[in-house]
Please model this.
Amino acid sequence: MMNSLRLVARRNFHQIRNFNS
Model:
């Protein structure tokens, strides 16, 4: 469960970074 959350957070972080860029 924690692994999934971590993966999702990582993906969201990348998406946000790309969006800002």
Q: What stands out?
A: Residues 8 and 14 are 10 Å apart (CA to CA). The mean pLDDT is 86. The chain is about 90% helix and 0% strand. The two ends are 30 Å apart (CA to CA).
